[in-house]
Amino acid sequence: MKIAVCIKRVPVMEVKFAITADGSRYEETGLKYDINDFDLWAIEAALQLKEKAGDGTVHVVCLGPNAAQEQIRKAMAMGADSGVLLESDARNYDGLAVARALAAELKGGAYDLVLFGRISIDSMNQMTGPMVAELLDLPVVTNVFKLDINGATGRAERVLEGASEVVEFPLPAVLTIDDGLNKERLPSLKGIMAAKKKPLEIKPANLDAAQVTVRSMALPAERAAGRIVGEGADAVPELVRLLQTEAKVL
Amino acid sequence: MANVLVFAESRAGELRKVALEAVTAARRLTELSGGGAVHVLLAGAAGIGSKAEPLAAHGADKVLVLEHAGFALHNPEALAATLAQLLSSGTYAYGLFSGTSHGRDLSPRVAAKLGVGLIPDLTGFTVENGAVVGQHPINNGKVIATLALSGSPTLLSVRPAAFTPAPAERALVAESITSAADPAASRVKVIELKQGNTDKIDLNDAAVVIAGGRGLKVADNFKLCDDLAEAFGNAAVGATRAVTDEGWRPHSDQIGQTGRNVSPDLYIAAGISGAIQHLAGMRTSRTIVAINKDKDAPIFKIADYGIVGDALEVLPVLTEAVRAAKAS
Ligand SMILES: Cc1cc2nc3c(=O)[nH]c(=O)nc-3n(C[C@H](O)[C@H](O)[C@H](O)COP(=O)(O)OP(=O)(O)OC[C@H]3O[C@@H](n4cnc5c(N)ncnc54)[C@H](O)[C@@H]3O)c2cc1C
Ligand SMILES: Nc1ncnc2c1ncn2[C@@H]1O[C@H](COP(=O)(O)O)[C@@H](O)[C@H]1O
User: What's the whole-model pTM score?
Assistant: First the structure.
């Protein structure tokens, strides 16, 4: 089983973002970075499939700045075998440009599966996986939260709003992984040591001119601090009064 | 003249509310770009055409009806092929999708086929010289980016519930079309649709969302949330990831960073700590109420109204009070 996983370096979101004075982007000083959450689950899925198959390789592909080597090494410490960094310093919001660069790298790789996260938590594009699939003319199943691979066919369940659908697909295929499929493993000390020696290739990303451009960025309106209405069931009448007269939602 | 093609989402032979939201957003798009027609693709098994009326009532100038047994369940490959064919005909300046699971699966496929960009999940937009300039939440909703795209055609998706369906009466004009690809030949086959209780209102359509967390202790206690939702009417029940991980509620009910985004008029969080990943999916709700027995729970920091107490005691009393308020 030969699997590729596309991973993205994203800011850790447990911070208060600030917007630069010119309103063009968010301030990056002081931000920490990690692998996109969904991509961790994609890596975990790949490792489990490899383990179940008894042999195979897991290759990670990342388009990002030089510092994204850190995220590739983390994926290797979890168990990925090799990686490539398509180096680019641009913060890219154009999904198609990224997808084209990734597709060009993946083309001819003869992967049985190419895994993506459902969405990247920074740009929130939720489009790269299906775009790459289309560019490579591979079948794609998005939002996968249950997965079963059996030889050359797979069966997955994908999330809809308030429902789900069961999908069958032939391999090779592209999947985008959703929350709920698994919990990612932590890199072991042994894994971290081994990762240092695994092959990591670095080459410049070949990005088309962006069609989608950022005009400006802003912070959403802050919520005004609320108040405690009271304690226990005794507070219910006052809450209901406020919902009727003040919030006017009842 | 800038015509718009809308993909109207249906499920199990019924039009979804997001389809009407999309038509309303498309009407706005034509107004902002100096007029044009709104055409809607409605696909399904035989008989789906009979569901087209509400689309016309919300401003669809023409409904392209694609009836085939192969569309009884979602058929993304054949739909993407058909949408790409329609959108490359030169008739349309814009292709508009709902920012739903299906919409965000189809739109990137079509964008890649046509080689055009896509701006996703817009909460609002304007048009400047034909280019769509719209707001898209990024960084888990903590930053709002204004993105611009001029493509030919320009593809976009709109966030569920961001546009309220507005009546714009038209006489129904329906035109039957055929699929650009054999629906039976799709490599990816949806073999089953698992719907929960179909009488339930979808989380994105509900004016009131009652969300339960681990503080509800056991699956059975979600009955208290269901009761409160019923007392409100037009309400749906959601959950935290702790709850969906336990299997107390289905995965599709999860609200938050990695689950659904909701912004109802009223959000009631019961037994929910208010982890940042949960807040990411509900912080834009108009009014937030929190019930938590820990007065220091982070959820109180963003709640408009808080009750410190045992949710298992507060919820039934609240349900009775809401029933009484509705009855009077
Ligand atoms: C990558 C990642 C993604 C995630 N995505 C999501 C997501 O999309 N959605 C999400 O919800 N979470 C998500 N999480 C998990 C999130 O961090 C929290 O763990 C989760 O939201 C906690 O759920 P909870 O509030 O139900 O449980 P807890 O944090 O355990 O809180 C339970 C609360 O109930 C209160 N309580 C206990 N008993 C009672 C009682 N009888 N009456 C009233 N109150 C009571 C407690 O005081 C406590 O505040 C994610 C985490 C990670 C790492
Ligand atoms: N720069 C990137 N490098 C590698 N993979 C990426 C990159 N951007 C997006 N992806 C992949 O595409 C998925 C969806 O991202 P997005 O379409 O940006 O929401 C992510 O979860 C990754 O798997």
Answer: 0.94
